[in-house]
Amino acid sequence: MPLRATLALPALALALAAAAPPPGGTLADVDPFIGTGGQGHTFPGAVVPFGMVQLSPDTDTACVIRACYDHAAGYRHDDPTIQGFSHTHFSGAGHSDLGDILVMPVSGEAVLLEPGDAARPGSGYRSRFSHDEETASPGYYAVTLADARVRAEMTAGTRIGVHRYRFRPSDAAHLVLDLRSSLYDYPGKILWSSLRLHPDGTITGMRETRGWAPARKLFFAMRFSAPLTGHAFVSTEEDVPYKGFQGPGRGSDAVAERAGRALVARLDFGRLDRPLEVRVAISSVDAAGALANLAAEPGDFDAVRARAQEAWSRELGRIEIDAPTPMRRMLATALYHSLIAPSIAGDSDGRFRGPDDQVHQADGFTFRSTFSLWDTFRAEHPLLTLIQPERVNSDIVRSLVASQEASPHSILPVWQFQGRETWTMIGYHAVPVIADAYLKGIRGFDAAAALDAMVKSARYAPYGGLGDYMARGYVAIDREPEAASKTVEYAYDDWTIARMARALSRGDLAAEFDKRAGYWRNTFDTRTGFVRARKADGTFRAPFDPTAINYGSDYTEGNAWQYSWFVPHDQAGLFRLMGGDRAVIARLDRMFEFDTSKLDYSHAEDIAGLIGQYIHGNEPSHHVAYLYNYAGAPWRTQERLRQIVESQYKPTPDGLSGNDDLGQMSAWLLFTGLGFYPVAPGSLEYVIGRPFVHRAALTLPNGKRFTIVADGLDDSRPYVGAVTLNGRPLARSFLRHKEIMAGGELRFRMQAAPNRRWATGPSARPYSASSPPR
């Protein structure tokens, strides 16, 4: 149990009252603590929609065995102490990094410069806290630090974070500024750092780290509402000359400065009769950029917090939700988590640091990064095409193309943050993001340049076995790991290239990539009925166990059960190879009902949320429940969706069964709650499931509204009896994108028993590439 602090602070009641979330609307339903426990890997701190700064508490940064994974977002709800507040965090990632520029308030005369041991109070600057004195809402976080005797509040702007600390008037006030602290904090990560105190009391600095992304540079500027009464810049290891990037030379205006690999600062403010506010801006370009970013967002804590709340009210207000309270909270929070990334990574003057480690100038758009594309191409980005298309066209697509143009390998981002490529996961899934946006009519970017970037990525032979894939029609497992997964994912990406090429009248490219889109067939073993890895000599690798999950094996974070369904662009073609509708329905049922009691997946930390061999905590399964529709059994999809939602989501800190993965888990729930899901981005269709809301309304960017109504929905009536679109019966199990964008009403009549006649015929089923045109 967390420590229940009994500390009473002056003005604490006032602070708690100010922290209360605003009444009414989607904003008030958001609970940033959902996903901060279990393996959700979300953070509770302050951020604005797509903001560069994510100012949040870090409960631990130690990297011991699984601790890096468990603390990927810096904060775990079951930890009893807070180490400090840092300015950059991933929302739900399956890997650790960031945690930049950690600040911690300290009271009293003695200031310890090490965080100390969480099990030994007083051994360092970390502090115990209680969830009873902790609160969070969009754009705001507050907590009482018991050992520090401080009430801490956080808010954020686009490129700034603002702290407010209420010290006891009788206590000397200090801050510890620790440049050594970092998530995924293994020895040697900090390559270099520097601190500089300017005559006006401003502190600037930088650090270069090697972590998940190599040679990542981050600069910052920090100002205070009270003057410094003293300071110390300390290096806690012997300074070692560094021949790499060191930032600008000594400035003539520097009151003090220090450089090294292990810097920590003590900042003294004496006894204060009012709260101390700390304004911090960051930049990946230079210190001048951080100073300019700080100046671009003026105002005190309350002004910045008001702007943050206004921004969240506007963006969250694009979807109105009427549902039972637990579902409303989960869906509102899912929408909130879906709007955190891709994060802004460019400065207020348009400069940004690209994957070539050079500074570039964005022309007419804001550079964005934090692209977890293997996860987010599935539902997160399709969601943004509905509710954030202005950001998709002006920023996201242009940022992807700008990154490709600056890439030393001429390839689109794979898993990128702050402009730096990690090469994590597989596929070239920026491709479907771009194609889906263009095919949905989103413009504002150079489509020809975007298609060129897509093609260059798909033809880059050194990447992930693409040379073999282009030459053989599959990735060879004895030449490249995870070959089965790569083959089917490349084939889907290629299909989206063909779709966009055809839309741009590039028949030559369309023919090339249509052929490649069929390469998934080269991995399907008709004898076993599974997608399998093949060797360079054409044989399937043996021995074969469809339940085996091992990193670097035939599959990526999954096994044959999950990956044998990954043909989102041609499920009908896959189903024919599997033996037709009845065989497919039986196989899907077997997947969900598989007895896994004798299987041990504890070695695979990303495998979570099992329902048989369906693994909701990992993305390859996310479309599978909707596949019954393609086999003419939509009522089975409705049953499985209820099973998934009820077992995998809760309005609690452990309410996500797996990593939120930069919004993908949340976007899945949001789409599913509305009653439809984008199984194949690029098809311009959404597969109808069943709603989990009484009513929802989307305010579309064209000014129209699309409303979903579920008549009679309750626990006793989980099945769709009938569907109407704008008052007319809808006898198919899919919805077209243009039908949503036209506005109107999608109405479900819910009932207790399944309707086994609705949307069962071949013409009523969703798109498949090999099905007859309709």
UniProtKB/TrEMBL annotation:
Residues 290-751 form the Glycosyl hydrolase family domain. Residues 30-283 form the Glycosyl hydrolase family 92 N-terminal domain. One of its GO terms (cellular component) is cytosol. GO terms for biological process: carbohydrate metabolic process; glycoprotein catabolic process. Residues 1-20 form the signal peptide. Pfam families: Glyco_hydro_92, Glyco_hydro_92N. GO terms for molecular function: carbohydrate binding; peptide-N4-(N-acetyl-beta-glucosaminyl)asparagine amidase activity. This is Glycoside hydrolase family 92 protein.
